Amino acid sequence: MTTELSRRTEEYCKRVLDKNASNQDIVEAYNDWAQIYDDSVKSLNYECPSVAAEEMKKLFQEKQDALILDAAAGTGLVGSELKKCGFHNLDALDASEEMLEIAKKKKLYKNVVCDFLGPNRLDIPDDTYDAVVIVGSFNPGHVNGSCLAELIRIVKSDGYIVIVMRKELLDEKFGRDLLEIMDGHVSAGRWAVVSRHPAPRYSSLNKGMVFVHRVQ
Ligand SMILES: C[S@@+](CC[C@H](N)C(=O)[O-])C[C@H]1O[C@@H](n2cnc3c(N)ncnc32)[C@H](O)[C@@H]1O
User: Fold this and answer.
1) Ligand 1: residues whose CB is within 6 Å?
2) Domain Methyltransferase, which positions (predicted)?
């Protein structure tokens, strides 16, 4: 990694992982990071987009026209991996305009929406998607369990929600709160667990965890 890329990558990672940062600070940090985000994460061997795409391939087999929302899509790295697996019916949503500008240039997505994932209602009808995939974005100050009810609402019955995130978060309050919300949706019969397992790869810095739930 060049020294300059390494210095700036470290600076942005610090900003987005700052536990005291507000949602707005985080979105501003991604707006600033957008131009070099792909180079940064490549230098960190960030492989979870391909892990997520492989999970989707297992779930959908040959149904490559599945309508998939890449939530917190960023610059479109997940969309790009989904496309390599043959998926071609993709939408993207993210809170950062600048990250989405990079994603749009890749021409991977039919609809690209700038919106916030949280307890707020999304401007998306009920039962729209065959799946939602969300990668690398469940983090303090980013996306948390408060958006899951809304994701469940926009996914069709028998559709999937696939989450790939840092495994170490499960040992923190953030992860414990998330698991409690996930399990609450299981108990309420809103979704069922398909699998919860360590990711085969994540990045040079972190280990990963994959959550796959089927909407009921
Ligand atoms: C680490 S990046 C991951 C992007 C992409 N999924 C990937 O794997 O490369 C996190 C993304 O989450 C977005 N984000 C953070 N909090 C969000 C929220 N509450 N709602 C929507 N997007 C959010 C950021 O703008 C950023 O693009």
Assistant:
1) 23, 26-27, 30, 49, 72-74, 77-78, 94-96, 99, 116-118, 135-137, 142-143
2) 68-159
Q: Atom of ligand 1 at shortest distance to CA of 52?
A: 8
HSE, CB side, 13 Å, CA atoms: give it for residue 216. 10
The total of other beta-carbon atoms located within 10 Å of residue 203's CB is 17
Domain ranges of the chain: 3-43, 48-215
Residue 98 CA to residue 142 CA, distance in Å, equals 16
Domain 48-215 has CATH 2.170.120.40: no
Q: pLDDT for 41-74, tens place per residue? A: 999 999 999 999 999 999 999 899 999 999 999 9
